[in-house]
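Notes from the 1:1 (GR / supervisor)

We went over the backlog. Supervisor wanted to see one worked example end to end before approving the batch request, so GR pasted a single chain during the call. The sequence is below; no edits were made to it. Supervisor asked that the structure be written out right there so they could see what the output format looks like.
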Amino acid sequence: MGVPTRCYQAGSRQTLVQALVAITVAGASYAWAMNITPAPVSRQIAAPEAMLIRALLDIRDSKFSAALDHIDSLLVANPNFRLAQLVKGDLLLARTRPINSIGNASGGSAEQVAGLRDEARVRLVRSQIKHAAELAPRYLLQLPEKEKLALVLDSTKSTLFVFENTGRTPRYVADYYVTIGKNGLEKVREGDKKTPVGVYHVVSQLPKDKLTDFYGSGAYPISYPNEWDQMRGRDGHGIWLHGTPRDTYSRPPRASDGCIVLTNQDLETLAEKLQIGSTPIVIADSIEWAKPEEVESLRSDLASSIESWRLDWESRNTDAYLRHYARKFMSNGANLAQWSAQKHQINAGKTWIRVKVSDISLLLYPGNEEMAVATFDQDYASSNLSNRMTKRQYWIRENSKWRIVFEGAA
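Structure output shown during the call:
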């Protein structure tokens, strides 16, 4: 006589729950959910992820029939959700014999199963995210009115946060589970399968019909390597935000060649808000959150330095102007000595200078509180030359003062 539909073998409940308690420690079982308390629902979580978390928590509570119901409903809507398939296999296997780890019923390779186990861990971590409305990433010092949103990636949580530009403290909008490079962060060279850390921008859009199925519903290249990367000799290219193939709902947390991968559903939702050539994305190891007054103090200090730089440029006091540049300054191959000689020569031929800056973006560089990126529209006029451009500067703290280490067209 066969095993009843909703009947689990004696001992299976115990071992399934034990498996859920060790998921973080060993990275191989269901065990960790024993300590999971989901955060209050104040975040926008995709329905498939919410159903998966509910099923894992049902397993924690020994509600295996309810867990299987949730997984079945999830797979009806998303049959390509491989982690859900893995959990269902374990629930079915638990009817006939005890299981002691995630993926007991899987026929996949050890690498595939390990990746899905890690995804289960990260999904549970994400269920605990509690966003405090009064806090914002300390990196977002100032966004110009024309930039509607900013993206901040927390790699330790495999989460891409979306913030709306309110003109004051950026407002949390949503967050998405993402995949990053197989070898983690700090991209240095072509082919290292790492995701870069830094301040970047979404620079273009590659439509679905121009790509292979591997990239899913589209791709959005970002500006790696940026100017700071290039100054440090970092190379490589082709770091994109993109989707997943048709047969894959999501990929494990570390599985890309360096790109940031979202589910197709999430990418399509995000794409509606992206501004090509403008939207910033800050990629960090772990987000540092700050209160508005702390962010404002940092912003005010940097903005004051930029205004002093502008006024000293207008004054034609070249020595005062050059004191705003760092010892290691570089621009288009010119070091500080070469830049200084050029500016002395240029300013000697002018009788007046007027400089206006507008639409200023100020972003702290992740992992380095001593550096910030300023991007702004510059309207320059003088007695013998006028031009307009979008300029980018990298400012670093040198002897407790903000100074420019790079300057060039954005």
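Supervisor's comment: Confidence is low (pLDDT under 50) at residues 1-6, 8-19, 21-28.
Batch request approved.
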